[in-house]
Design a protein that fits this description.
Chain A is mainly beta and 112 residues long. Chain A contains no helices and eleven strands. In chain B, a hairpin with a 6-residue loop joins strand 4 and strand 5 (45-51). Classes of the chains: A mainly beta (112), B mainly beta (111).
């Protein structure tokens, strides 16, 4: 069966520090991968999505970046965090033309 | 105008009540409509999926899509305290375009 792993579950980071969040999917191949951020009162905001290794689409220009070094691995990074980067970060996957997403358990990031 | 509008609530109902959750959208090209349920501090989970207009029923849950009015609904019958969660509507143009989510409606079912 397919599973999605996302870590860490919680993170407290100072302003200006780097960030690396990792997401991996098991039990499938060639998934579409997504990073969403959920902030209070703003719903789920799509940050990046990828339909294959090295193929990243950015939806929101900001100080975050994403990479997909392997088929089932998706990484969200930042060189210098801002206070506004605080939120609940969710990784998700689906197979092409399969409309339902499966979400990871999320990372709650607090930038202080 | 945002692509997807959803009343954030919160909505509080007694156990056993019928709950109606709604979303409106502006892009008439949306074809695939979903409802997700999210418990506190967890990732969303897919609850219902509907293609184009029509109704779909799954146990106590019924999803309705009215494309002419650009309006979708989720009905929960005989609501239970375990239904207390945030419900998010989502929609997409095709299977290869990312989902667009509403802000979510927080529901509390009181025993």
């Amino acid at each position: 069966s397919q599973t999605i792993h996302q870590w860490p579950a919680t993170l407290v980071q100072p302003v200006g520090s780097p960030l690396s969040l990792e997401c991996t999917v098991e039990g499938t191949s060639n998934p579409n991968l997504y990073w969403y951020r959920q902030a209070a009162g703003r719903g789920l905001q799509l940050l990046f999505y990828s339909i294959g290794i090295g193929q990243i689409s950015s939806e929101v220009p900001q100080n975050l970046s994403a990479s997909r070094p392997q088929d089932r691995q998706f990484i969200l990074s930042s060189k210098k965090l801002l206070l506004s980067d605080s939120g609940f970060y969710l990784c998700a996957w689906n197979l092409p033309r399969n409309y339902g997403y499966t979400f990871g358990s999320g990372t709650r990031l607090t930038v202080v | 105008q945002k692509e997807v509008e959803q009343d954030p609530g919160p909505l509080s109902v007694p156990e056993g009540a019928i709950v109606s959750l709604n979303c409106t959208y502006s892009n008439s090209a949306f074809q695939y409509f979903m409802w997700y349920r999210q418990y506190s501090r967890k990732g969303p989970e897919l609850l219902m999926y509907t293609y184009s207009s029509g109704n779909k029923e799954d146990g106590r849950f019924t999803a309705q899509v009215d494309k002419s009015s650009k309006y979708i609904s989720l009905f929960i019958r005989d609501s239970q305290p375990s239904d207390s969660a945030t419900y998010l509507c989502a929609m997409s143009l095709s299977g290869n375009t990312p989902l667009v989510f509403g802000k979510g409606t927080r529901l509390s079912v009181i025993a």
